[in-house]
Design goal:
126 residues; alpha+beta; two-stranded parallel sheet; two-stranded antiparallel ribbon; elongated; Integrase core domain-containing protein; RNaseH-like_sf
Length: 126
């Protein structure tokens, strides 16, 4: 079997004895990025760091089932479809629809709550 690797940043949570023991017992070899070098692990740093800052600093999952319900909502209904990303020229990973320009008085928006009203997205309606 090929060795498994996990790229970790230098967050204190990842340096704990418990994490190191778990990784060793699972046959996973940690690869740690250099200090102050988040670009070495762009996926983990952007998704994990952003997820922690934007969600779990405000939302405490009550159970694993609660977490499994809330994570997809954040990722699919907000992070990938409405939150702009600097790495892709301030676009979203899933492109948003392009609407024809209208007068601001004629535009009607529907507010869509995400994560129990922590965030809101907006959709133009006819």
């Amino acid at each position: 079997m090929d060795p498994k690797y996990l790229i970790l940043n230098n967050d204190p949570d990842f340096r704990s004895k418990e994490i190191k023991d778990f990784l060793a017992s699972s046959g996973i070899q940690p690869k740690t990025t250099f200090y102050r070098s988040p670009w070495q692990n762009p996926i983990a740093e952007s998704v994990n760091g952003t997820l922690r800052r934007e969600s779990f600093n405000y939302l405490n999952p009550l159970s694993e089932a609660h977490l499994q319900k809330e994570l997809p909502e954040y990722v699919h209904n907000y992070y990938n479809s409405h939150r702009t990303n600097q790495g892709i020229n301030f676009n979203t990973p899933i492109p948003t629809p392009t609407y024809l320009p209208v007068n601001v008085n004629q535009a009607k928006l529907k507010v869509i709550p995400v994560l129990n009203d922590l965030y809101h997205t907006y959709k133009r309606i006819a």
